[in-house]
Amino acid sequence: DLELPQSRLNRTITWTYPEVSNIQQALNLTSDNSGLGLAINSTTGNGSIDLDVKVKFAQNYENLKLVVYILENHLIYRQYNYTNYFGAINPVPNFEHNHVLRTSLTNLLGNPLSNTNFNQTLTTNFSLPIPSNISNADNISYVAFVVDANNNVINVRAAESNEEQAFEQNP
Fold first, then answer.
1. CA–CA gap between residue 167 and residue 171 (Å, rounded)
2. Element (H, E) at 104
């Protein structure tokens, strides 16, 4: 029988319930090596967002897409609960929601990338007013990921507001 809400891995795979007992299912989708890196630089303030998403390629790729989301944390609302978590209380009052998708800066499934060849670095800039559906601009964060032609995530990176990131490299 199906319990809600459900968690998704890689936006498509149902994370087997109970998720806390199936952490390995998520870990199986990760690795220490990726053929591309991401770095996010953000300036959030004075009613606006300036966001640079950089992708650097360690190998040649074709048919990639970039996905960039604005998230909001610390949203306190009642949460319907169809699970046994939280003492099976339904609804859970004053539940803190984090990493809530507020706006997609790209197509939800991604915008095509070109020049995705070894040693290339692509920078995509987004400059916009803080979206009106943001409750508190101090709680904004960002996530960017690159997907292949089958919408499988190759690499992903999260960033807080006003963060400047360097590319991560394996030793």
1. 13
2. strand 100-104
pLDDT level of residue 171 (50, 70, 90 thresholds): low
**pLDDT tens sequence across 23-63:** 999 888 887 778 999 999 999 999 999 999 999 999 999 99
8 A C-beta contact, residue 103 and residue 70: yes
Type of residue at 32: D
Q: Which residues contact 102 (CB under 8 A, 6 or more apart)?
A: 69, 70, 71, 72, 131, 133, 134, 140
- Amino acid in the structure at residue 163: E
Structure tokens at 154: 């190759």
Structure tokens at 16: 């087997």
Per-residue pLDDT, averaged over 161-166, amounts to 96
The structure tokens listed for 133 are 């559906």
